[in-house]
Predict the structure.
Amino acid sequence: MNLFSRSLRLIMAVLLTVYADGCGQGDEEVQEEISSTAFISSSPSQGTIEPNSTITVTFDHPPEDVEVNAGLVKVDKAVVIGQTLTITGPFPPGPLVLTILWADGVQTLNYTVAASELIAIPGAAVSVGIFPASVASPPPGEHLILDINITDGEDIAGYQLTLDFDATALRYVSSSNADYLPVGAFVIPPLVETNQVTLAATSLNGGSQDAGTLATVTFEVIAVKPSALILSEVRLTDTEANFLRVSAGNAEVVE
């Protein structure tokens, strides 16, 4: 219900009450009940979900003007029937923040989408590695910037990877999607833990070829010491949502 409609109903209620008092109806009150739609629950409410999960949201009244967004991208597979909103996948692996907007409010839901069991299509492995592969540690307090590079790519439309690091030597500062995927790629917020960070992005406009940089990661040096940087759970997909074979390369920090 929009603001104009609510205001009109309020005015009508006041006028009816005044009219009733003027006609000698005594203490009898004419009231206009004004209701708004409120969020009640979601199932699942939070936690880890599968890529092809269905999320069910319940309201106390049928919601109007519903829109669901994952980050900055509108979710098309969202259907309202009565007091229930159903949101269906597939959802990209990694952190998922769903923002539900309706005429009377907004609600945010937070999930982690689990990676599916992968069956890569046949073909040569695509190389994904950390650059530089060996780097001298800057002094404590300074930044160490690393690129996640890809070579031999063909029709690459998305990536997910986890970068493990030594938390006694480095502290994660920030990361950014680079320019390998086509312009307008949907970047999933990084999932940061004490000694690892998971990055993911998906193209909304075709795939990319050949070599380039997927992402850039910045660390702050805590201590100058030898340490390893390890890529794990590296996933690449093409524009047909097929998983590709991947060869991952690690790196080291030296004194």
In short: The chain is about 10% helix and 55% strand. The CA atoms of residues 161 and 234 lie 4 Å apart.
